[in-house]
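Aim 2 progress update. The chain analyzed this quarter is reproduced below.
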Amino acid sequence: MVIESYAFGNIVIDGRRYTSDLIIYPDGKIVDGWWRQSGHVMTKSDIEALIAAKPEVIVVGTGASGMLKPERGIEKVLKKNGIKMVAGPSSQALKYFNELSSSKRVGACFHLTC
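Predicted structure tokens:
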């Protein structure tokens, strides 16, 4: 799986364009229409199914301007589950994802707008 491009409001993965926030599971499954309980705050409950999929790394695309914020303490919770978190603006996060996915079990969640 390769994330080919990202621009405000859309992302292209393996030739398919997505226009809503999404989660990528380590097995390659993509679920779009990802909605968080607290809007621009990503909580543990927002990614429970991704955590259950047991990735080694979760890449978080925080949007074009980095407006999505992982809740305080989520990195510690993930670490207790043996999961590393890498977060950054979505344009940078796609690079992290593409680099890491060739050698690790990677999951991701992407905010596509702000």
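The helical segments are 48-52, 74-80, 90-100. The chain has one domain: 3-110. These observations will guide the mutagenesis experiments scheduled for the next reporting period.
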